[in-house]
Amino acid sequence: MNLTFNNQLLRKSQSLIALFLLCLLIALLSDKFLTTSNLWNVLRQISVNVCIAVGMTLVVLMAGIDLSVGSVLAFSGAICAGLIKFGFAFESLDLFVGFTVLGGILGAMLVGLLLGLFNGWVITRFVVPPFVATLAMLTIARGLTMLYTKGIPISNLGPGLEFIGSGWLLGIPVPVWISLIVVLVFVFISRKTAFGRYIYAIGGNEKAAFLSGININRIKLAVYGLAGMLAAIGGVLVTARLNSAQPNAGMTYELDAIAAVVIGGTSLSGGVGSVTGTVIGAAIIGVLNNGLVLLNVSPFWQQVAKGVVILLAVIIDKMNRKEA
Amino acid sequence: MLLEARNISKSFPGVKALDDVSLQFYPGQVNVILGENGAGKSTLLKILTGVYPQYEGSILLDGKVLRFGSVREAQRAGIAIIHQELNLIPQLTVSENLFLGRELHRELGLLDSTEMNRQTQAVLEKLQLDIAPQTPVRRLKVGEQQLVEIARALLTDAEVILMDEPTSALSDTEIDNLHRIIRDLKADGKTIVYISHKMDELFRIADHYTVLRDGVMVGTGKMEDTTEAELIRLMVGRELKIEAKTLVTQSDEVVMRVKDLDLDHPYVRQRKVLENISFNLKRGEILGIFGLMGAGRTELLETLFGLHPGRSRYRLEIEGTARQFKSPQEAIRQGLAFVTEDRKAEGLILGMDIAANISLPTLSETPMLQPQREKELARSYVDQLAIKTPSERQLCRNLSGGNQQKVVLAKWLSTRPKILFMDEPTRGIDIKAKHELYELMKQLVADGLSILLVSSEIPEILTLSDRILVMAEGRITGDFSVTEADEDHLLKAALPG
Q1: Which among B327, B369, B398 is the nearest to A193, CB-wise?
Q2: Do B360 and A201 lie within an 8 Å CB cutoff?
Q3: Structure ipTM
Q4: What is the pLDDT of residue B228?
Q5: How does it sit in the membrane (chain A) (predicted)?
Q6: Domains and CATH numbers, chain B
């Protein structure tokens, strides 16, 4: 028993140790790394990926995948901007509804939730593999974004939204607050609720979970819905940061999210992993990117480096599992 | 060629699949291997065909010791296998399938389709199969596909052909055709190794039998010297002391009433897996269901548990109230529990610990997890069922088969069921754990639980049941009280036809 327990502990701390060593290495090579402003910068940069990757973690724990989060992010971001800037007009009723910043954000989250639920519905109702269902949503949501924005950024969204993207609260950047709250909420959900346990159970053995009376389809629906909603929160952050919704925002963000999940030790075959692991995974990617920028390494090399880290993470994970 | 296995043993973690098995398969004969699920048949086949290169003992082909490191090596030595699930690629043509992996080439490495088609044509003619070599395999009927597999074995000049339940998906005429081909192969001196559960078929086609039970060879000889009943006795009988069943005075209260249950076949229209099944289960009763493989016992439990809502029809009363279950969730809510046959694939989440597995069906009572309650629940069952583990946080993966089965039982007892379904509850667990489980079951029914017990072990079912239903081919063919039931009655009722 102690053996497996230690192994789990080791696996968890492995990525932490890796993060620590990475920070140490970069700090030795560049004296700009360990400045307060730079560290806040890193945290702000990873906040979007953290939000998306937390949702991705739940999906992957269930042995699923969600490729649509980047596009869902773009569409919800555009909705957020559009609602705040133009409001919503019912021409036939001669009615115009304006939106506050909060209203715009909630609207975006609702849209993200609905797109996610649609993913979940297709996956459960028609037994479409998650890879295919969410791949379809990747292009659908991107197309909807282009239609909604007509391919032009929606900009100048006012100081309220700008505060969310660039403001500070109690000495901490607002996006960092938001991603922190997301992480805390989902650590709680995944560890302390029956819903969280069901996610692990489905990923561990879907058939046994079903036979134990778990409503598999409802859990799946909820998880894909949440993944969509978290992507929408990421969309709000991206839009707020630029004070503008870009039609091509969030391209390939799904890959960064999956990378964070995998580096954080969550198994793509489901059942094993954690939200905290994913946060560490996102931090490793963020620190790596930041460090390579500080060291003036070409951005092309950054991509190569990220790929190598993903490979290393998976290979180390496989070797751990063989020993266990 | 004479294929011989000498003192073969093969272990997997926690279970000895084959224990010192020695047997011969003779050329020019159909050698049949018999045994229930888990007897070791498929392990033996996998050793003979090089799937498992690690084993103790030796394999001899015409007296020469061979050790196959891979499937390819076994093939090269002349051993071909025809799997129960077909190993053909549906999109490719018959000829492409037959030559897959060893295509004929012309100069420049180009494929020699002409020659491959010609050879395919020749072998198809030999099998009296009227198919063009260029037909995609997916257009063929299942029976024809089976014959294509055989054609592949013939093309490789295999001397030994292993067939794993080749007729399970075939129609009667297709079976006749297959038998004719097998007789031709026999006449050519090929060694045929045949696995089937259809007794009548075996007596028509087989020359020599070997029976495996729990990884041990328990009988071998010529088919003409044995009887159906004798073979079944060898397969399912177990030299376990049968304790006389003490009849407990039980209530006459019917807990579950099943009437006119039908279950349609999942793929074949008009065919039924279960037909016209009616029975009552009383409070505090163990109702045994006996039958051979394929009789529909598991399907009966599954249907009642809400697993086949689309293709089943039945009237069901639980404690006097009419019910229909569309999912396990609904069945569990009404007091049903189901210890499934395959605890690893269906019973447990192996990567989770004991406590998490036990609490799984009852978690929905509160939205928040209650670690303290979970721990206490697990502790109480670890004590009550004597689950051998250092802690209730041990992963189920690391438990022995018997202890895993106890965790499955604990999981279901935690739902406080009125009716417990148990499908082969002692399969693959050792004798001691088995007897502990028997004692537990007796205790549970004394406390008012009702158990529907599916088992293919006669001693087990005779020891435990108050009443025994026998099933054959999807119907109930016998209904015995424990006082009138004996081995012969059960076997006679279990034989199809």
Answers
A1: B369
A2: yes
A3: 0.85
A4: 80
A5: Multi-pass membrane protein
A6: 3-236 (3.40.50.300), 254-494 (3.40.50.300)
